[in-house]
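Folds abound. A case:
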Amino acid sequence: MLPHNICVIGGGRWARVIIGVLCDILPPGSCVNVLSYHNAEQMSAWISEHNYKLVIHVTSGESEFDLKKSDIVIIANAAHDHYKTAKHALNLGLPVLVEKPLALSYRDCQELISIADHHKVGIALSQIFLFTRYFENFTKIVLAAGEIQQIRFYWSDPKNESRYGETKSYDSSLPIYFDLLPHILPLIGKLTSNNFEKSAKLQLLKGGAHINVDVIVGNVPCRIELVRNGQSRKRLIEVVTINGQIKLDFSSEPGIIRIGSKTINGDPDWLINQKPLGRMLNAFIKLVTVGEYDERLNIDIAAKASKLIDIVNASYQFMQKSWLIKKVSVPGFQVDDEIRYALYEIFQSKEVLPKSFIEKAIDNFENQVVGNNINRQVINELINSQNFLNYFTDN
């Protein structure tokens, strides 16, 4: 019952990781069609360096192969394209597994779920950390420890990081909460009730490269701290129960669980058992081929998280612009890394743009604002209009 024809849409680092795992779990003779609009040549070169047992075709255009012949579609392209790519595949009646985020709004998430229901096909969001044994082990310990009083979640990525032999980078057009909360909220929900309050308190630092989100899940207060361009890689969950504190540090997998002064390996069988991505892909394959349901693929989890992310997004947009206005109002200010980070996001709020285009706009911004050609009131009006980017590219 295993699928023999899988389409992977995307040409980046994570798409390559997925292809490598598929080659481990699919039977010989299976075919993987890779659709990459912008990176097909590099993807072909990468595949030629590996002696994979599967047949792998790479194309840069959908017309070069029939998507309808696919048994499963795995979407791992740019986050801004997830919605339209998933919608197209679902309307063809194809089951879809989407890398996070599912879409960039709750409304779009709900539309994708409705389309999948209409065509009676599977749809799931990549929830890879729910498939880690170290989180499973941590959850069992926490739930056995008594009532949870507080949860704190720390996630930090360094400016330059190598993962699986490749340099890891983030999408500069995608605010950090779109990138990470789809991972984090389901983990918190697993520890609590998955009932997220319809409000969140947000603190914005460093232009948006560092944010703190306070939210109530069930009746448990949770603080989520997210950092880009940090000092080091950090993945830490701290849970305070009525019987003490329990921590999971999975900055380096399989992680370490700390119960008071006691320390245990998060997954003692990490080196011999199947890794989380393989477990998740197998679970989705079983779902769409034999109907074997895995709660960790429940798309409602993604929908609930998306509703809260909408709330965070509304606050974030206002706070980021206010932060920038305050920052540039200081006499003698210079465009530093924090301002540059904010401008990259603000300039790309409507569409993803070439780096050279954004750099030109930032140079013009610095020249005009530092030169006192624009006062605070004008900056405020520009930032909150549709002409902010155009002003600094046309002038």
